[in-house]
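Morning. Coffee machine broken again, so started the prediction first thing and wrote up yesterday's gels while waiting. Chain of 128 residues, entered below exactly as on the submission form.
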Amino acid sequence: MEEPVNKERREELFSRAVRAGKRTYFFDVKATRAEEYYLTITESKRRFNNEQGKFFYEKHKIFLYKEDFDKFKNGLTDVLDFIQTGVAPVEKVVEKKTSADKPAQVEFEDLTSEAEKEEVESTEKTDD
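Came back before lunch.
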């Protein structure tokens, strides 16, 4: 039997479950169609539905893509360090130069239209 062409769920390549009290966190590595890895973080909480008299699981997901790993990791590390030490990390300031910081370099040739350039070239040739 053939697999459906449009799979809704991606198969986990690697998974880790972390049980923490009434919650369970799942860290699942999956791949896009282009074989780029990404991470899904799922928080699962067991809840009781009084109307139906049954337990169910409430889930919340975060999708984290490769290009965001470093920023996510740095932010998470900063927050965890603050929680453990009570000391806020020093903000990393990145200086960005604005156009006001340096004079614009303008080539006057660039401001000339093509018709004007042709006219100047033909004038220069006749002057020779």
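The beta strands are 14-20, 23-31, 37-49, 54-65. Going to sketch it on the whiteboard this afternoon.
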